[in-house]
Amino acid sequence: MAKHNELGKEGELLALEFLKEKGYEILEQNYRLGKAEIDLIITKENWLIAVEVKTRSTNYFGNPEEFVNAKKKKMLVEAMNSYVIEHDLDVEVRFDIIAVLKQQNDFKIEHIEDAFLFF
């Protein structure tokens, strides 16, 4: 596995543990619809949340959350719509980003709730 893929998987595992500690219930990991993938689908209170995890080893070219572009957002929305229909859910949906930045041997995790309003 390429080094950047290993870093991405490590970031997803850290995000998963971070969210569990914050009281979120994990419903799905790596949910796929065609080419779209939602890293995590979680729930807390009355929210169904699609989580995109972005992990970077440096912020030299920008912060991790800045790499969620318009095309990715569109694909995430379509995949989440499919998930809601597939499971016949009537819930409020939001899209969060977990930004993971590796700094030497440590990781900084930032949870951006309702991220599509800001990016």
Shape: globular
For the record, give the distance between the C-alpha atoms at the N and C termini, rounded to a whole number: 30 Å
The mean pLDDT is: 89
CATH topology title: Trna Endonuclease, Chain: A, domain 1
Q: Looking across the biggest beta sheet, what order are the strands in?
A: 1-2-3-4-5
Binned, the helix content reads 25-40%
Q: Which sequence of SSEs, written as H and E, runs from N to C? A: HEEEHEE
* Most strands sheet: 5 strands, mixed
CATH architectural name: 3-Layer(aba) Sandwich
Number of helices: 2
CATH class: Alpha Beta
* Proportion of strand residues: 35-45%
State the domain count.
Answer: 1
Compute the gyration radius: what is it? 14 Å
Assembly state here? Answer: single chain
Low-confidence segments, ≥5 residues, pLDDT <50? Answer: none
Tally of strands: 5
User: Structural class given helices, strands, pairing?
Assistant: alpha+beta
Secondary structure layout plus pairing:
Blueprint: H1 3-21, E1 25-33, E2 36-44, E3 47-56, H2 70-86, E4 92-103, E5 106-112
Parallel strand pairs: 3-4
Antiparallel strand pairs: 1-2, 2-3, 4-5
Description:
By secondary structure, the chain is α+β, with helices and mostly antiparallel strands. The chain has one domain (about 5-115): Trna Endonuclease, Chain: A, domain 1 (3-Layer(aba) Sandwich), CATH 3.40.1350. Helices cover about 30% and strands about 40% of the residues. The protein has two helices and five strands. A five-stranded mixed beta sheet has the order 1-2-3-4-5. The model has no long low-confidence stretch (mean pLDDT about 90).
